[in-house]
Amino acid sequence: MKYKQIRKSEVPSSDLPKNTKLFSRLVWLVYFIATILAIGNLIGTNALATQGIVLDNILRETVKISKENQILSVEIGKINNLSYIESTAAKLGFRRVSSNLIISPVEAVAEATQR
């Protein structure tokens, strides 16, 4: 194989150094923009995940309070029942009145003023 020697003047000139510098700047710009977008995405995802955890805690607390409200409603219904009140009063030593005691307003005022 024979090689032909080419003179420097015969080599076509190129603007490769200028284009390489521009290309290098574009690559750095793309990397910079990609990095900024990745950091923004990370911050947004982190904030969204944190809000999800807070929302989940709020929903659990709401369910817990709702169950407590149901239990308290049953307890209130039980305590307001007349037979429950009567049995509790009997346990505390109260008894039914067999006769009514009537005090006139004048006697009540006189009794209060003597004390």
Characterize the structure shown.
- With 115 residues, the protein is mainly α.
- The chain has helices spanning 16-79, 82-91, 105-114.
- It has a domain at 21-95.
- It has 3 helices and no strands.
- The longest helix has 64 residues, at 16-79.
- It is rod-shaped and about 140 Å long.
- The protein starts with 15 loop residues before the first helix and ends with a helix.
- The model has no long low-confidence stretch (mean pLDDT 83).
What can be said about this structure in brief?
By secondary structure, the chain is mainly alpha-helical. It has helices at residues 16-79, 82-91, 105-114.
- What about the largest sheet? none
Helix content: over 70%
Q: Provide the low-confidence segments as ranges.
A: none
Termini separation: 139 Å
CA gyration radius, whole angstroms? 46 Å
Find the structural class using helix and strand composition: mainly alpha
* Shape type: rod-shaped
